Predict the structure of Mitochondrial carrier.
Amino acid sequence: MSEERPFNYLFDSAALNESLRRNKAVVCALSASYISTFAGYPLDSIKSRLQTTKQPITIPRLAALVYREEGLIGFYRGLWIPLITISFVRAASFTIYTRTKEYFRDHHWLTHNNILHVSTTGGIGGALSGSLISFGSAPFELVKVRRQLEYSIAASKGLRIAKPPSTLEAVRDIFRTNGIFGLYTGFRLHFVRDTFGTALYFFEYDGLRYIMGRLPSGEQGSTPAWLPIHNSLVPFLCGSVAGVTSRRTLQNRLGYVSTVGTRP
C-alpha cells in the first residue's frame, strides 16, 4: 500500500485540487505568463526596435519593415528565452511575494485591515521579489534583447546577416567579447527597474484588491456598489490597471535606458 500511495496521490482529484488551491497564485501566474508571453512577444520585439532606432518611424511601418526583412520569425526572435525562464521567474517571484506577506502576518507587522497596510506589505513583497529575481533574469533579458536587435545592430555596422546566430551562439559571442560580466551589462538599471517596478505593481494591485472588496483571508468578497462586476473579473481588472500604470510610470522608462545600454 505504501508503494502505491505516491502514485495514487498524483491521480487523487481531491488532493490535486487542494494542492492547486494552496498554490493558486503560482499556478495562475505560470499559465497567464506563458499565454501573455507568446501573445505579446511581437509587440515587445517592436518596442525594443523602436527604443533603439535613431530615425522616427511609425509602428505599422516598422512592423512591415521587420516582416519584409526577417519574415514572421523576426517578431519571435529570442522567444525561447522568456518561455524557458518564465516558469522559474514567475514561480519564484510569486513565492517570494507571498512568503514575505506571510512573514509580516506571522510577526504581526502591518496587519491592520486598511489600504495602507495592505498596499505596503504588497509593495515590500514585490520589491524583495523583483530585486532577488533580477540577479537571475538580467542575463536572459540581455540575450533576448540582443536577439531581437540582431538585424538592427548589423545594419548599424554596415553588415548584412545571411543566417542569424542561434541563442547559444549569441551567448557565446557576449561571453567571448566581454567575459562572464558581459551578461550583466546594464544590470544596475535592470535591478532598479525590477525592484521598484515590481514593488509599484504589487503596491497598486493589493491596494486595488482591497478597494474591490478582497477579504483579509484573501478570498474575494462583494464588489463595491459603484463597480458591480463579477468577482472573477476583479483580479484581471486590478492586475491590468497595476500593470499598465507601473510600466507607464517607471518600468518602461528604465527599460528604455537599459535596452539602449545593451547595444555593443
About this structure: Residues 40-260 form a domain with the Mitochondrial carrier fold fold (CATH 1.50.40.10). The CA atoms of residues 68 and 74 lie 9 Å apart. The chain has a mean pLDDT of 85.
